[in-house]
């Protein structure tokens, strides 16, 4: 099902971004911006998003929120909850949201 595949892909990209943040933890005080991977549902996407470290930390805490490039959002399974220059934050809905919430527990 498209919703499940999209949720799995986005969770995978979120894990990658969390690992990037974890690996740079000791440098975080010196960093202001980081290049993170687009967390869209497209497994072949290689886009990156420059984001302030503190912005990503807030996004991480939000749960069921994914950082994607403009145009990478999928209105069939997610809603845009925030727009910024160069990226949007989306939230899954329906079955995909249930999958994300279960994975985050």
Structural commentary:
The protein has 105 residues and is α+β, with helices and mostly antiparallel strands. The protein has one domain (2-104). The chain is 41% helix and 26% strand. It has three helices and five strands, in the order H-E-E-H-E-E-E-H. The chain has helices spanning 2-23, 53-62, 94-104; strands spanning 33-37, 48-52, 66-69, 78-84, 87-92. The strands form two sheets. The protein has a three-stranded antiparallel β-sheet with strand order 3-5-4. Strand 4 (78-84) and strand 5 form a beta hairpin. Helix 1 runs parallel beside helix 3.
- Strand order, sheet with most strands: 3-5-4
* Mean pLDDT, all residues: 82
The total strand number stands at 5
Distance between the termini: 22 Å
Quick take:
The protein is of the alpha+beta class. It is built from three helices and five strands; from the N terminus they run αββαβββα. The longest helix is centred in the first third of the chain and has 22 residues.
Give the tags.
105 residues; alpha+beta; 3-stranded antiparallel β-sheet; two-stranded antiparallel ribbon; 3 helices; 26% strand
Structural topology:
Elements: H1 2-23, E1 33-37, E2 48-52, H2 53-62, E3 66-69, E4 78-84, E5 87-92, H3 94-104
Antiparallel strand pairs: 1-2, 3-5, 4-5
